[in-house]
Amino acid sequence: MGTVHARSLDPLPMHGPELGVHADDIEAPEIEQEPKQEVLENKDVVVQRVHIDGLGRTKEDLLTYEISEVFRAKNLIDVMRRSHEARQKLLRLGIFRRVEVVIDTSRGEDALPNGLDVTFEVTELRRMTGSYNTMVGNNEGSMVLGLKLPNVLGRAEKMTFQFSYGTKETSYGLSFFKPQPGHFERNISLNMYKVTGQFPWSSLRETDRGVSAEMSFPVWKTSQTLKWEGVWRELGCLARTASFAVREESGHSLKSSLSHSMVIDTRNSSILPKKGGLLKIHQELAGYTGGDASFLKEDFEIQLNKTLFWDSVLSASLWGGLLLPIGDKPTSIADRFYLGGPTSIRGFSMYSMGPQSEGMAGDYLGGEGYWAGGLHLYTPLPFRPGRGGFGDLFRTHFFLNAGNLCNLNYGQGPQAHLKKLAECIRWSYGLGIVLRLGNIARLELNYCIPMGVQSGDRICDGVQFGAGIRFL
Prior knowledge:
mainly beta
């Protein structure tokens, strides 16, 4: 809850030194007793003033929205609760290193007998901060260097420069973030970036140079995001043995797209949840705002988690997506879906299933439709070693995964699409150990048995290691 100080309202007992005179021999002067103030949880109080000490470059009007609820408190417990909530809002702004709360009786000529003053003692972040850390995602690791200018204009704006160097991807970007005063969830951000990635399963190298603008806002229990993105894409061959299908798509293209995403997340943890659910829906429309890429892309993600007996957790997940080309131009290899690997359908190599180029190269070209489902049972380690400490970061993992990835003939109708997605289903099962790395990422070491393997699929029969944030 943080530190909340409430100063004592009763006089402290005082004891003087013994001088050889008994207290009964001294006539005590009559002292006029001040009326004793009582502030108890069942007594009404009035918050008369709220002070914020320690402000430098922060504008006071920004903080008025965050602390206004403190004035509505009716008793001491309510004052402490609302002060704590206001403290959390101030820390959420990302402009203070420390926020402490002091609650005291009101003083001065206009002080009421039941009046209180609340003081927030804040320490602002420095004008410029740097960071160095590592990230794990999509079964790869990266080193990240960051430079941040918090509260750059005095109203919780943030300017960030970030450089990332990874095993398969290198990127750098500049972003500007601004929240709406009083409604931190409503914000806008502007981004400029360059990303260079290597995709060995497709013998492809891609360099993206882009700008984007997005707006986020809550609606009921959902988080909504609207985004425009303009990207200059450069595709090239990663190896001299790249197939003709990949070489044919090499070159430059320009994508301008509008996208919308909706998220409902009630999970207690995004890495290894024990309860709650997730619903994520994303749509992207390219071509109507310029560029030479034209398509409509839809995908979704559903996850449900339920705690069972003996601290075990049953989790079910479902992913799916469709890519619909607009016009006569086919979809690009850079826009299609990919499936397979330790973060999706375990027992298969990374993104190594589905449509494939002809010839010896066998590059994976992605698909225009896919689905994937998973059923997982997480249990504590046998005999619970390290219970209450380091051992709680590990879980035993039993899983069953299934899915399919293919290209669709959109002239045949929805029933034909469903029939094709139901054909040649890949699936796998197995067990392993999961390690949760805080709320950053998780590691899996599984023994996998792939089934339903189709011609051209690359499998990982036996032990498979996975690292990332998003798992099926």
